[in-house]
Amino acid sequence: QVQLVESGGGLVQAGGSLRLSCAASGRTFSSIGMGWFRQAPGKEREFVATIRWSGVRTYYADSVKGRFTVSRDNAKNTVYLQMNSLKPEDTAVYYCAAGAYGRASMDEGEYEYWGQGTQVTVSS
What we know:
Blueprint: E1 2-7, E2 10-13, E3 18-26, E4 33-39, E5 46-51, E6 58-60, E7 68-73, E8 78-83, E9 92-99, E10 111-114, E11 118-123
């Protein structure tokens, strides 16, 4: 079992930055892949970013590439999502997920564990 707790969401103006954190407990964090997904009102949940267990491989959605950076600190059992140049269309509940057999995966079906989500609101 892995428990995930996100933090760092909030209200920010367009062009601003936020850093989301996801603290994990339970299974050995350093062996699991981590992903970030988001769900805007009235829309399906979508992939944002993912990082392999070792941290050497990452993938991003085209909509956030160049603005968002995913990283992890295995010593702290934490994964981060640095979000810069935020746009109103980034407004959503952001979820972190764990699993994917240790890989960096864009497929939410490959993740076993999910956090409760943190709200990010970007005003224009």
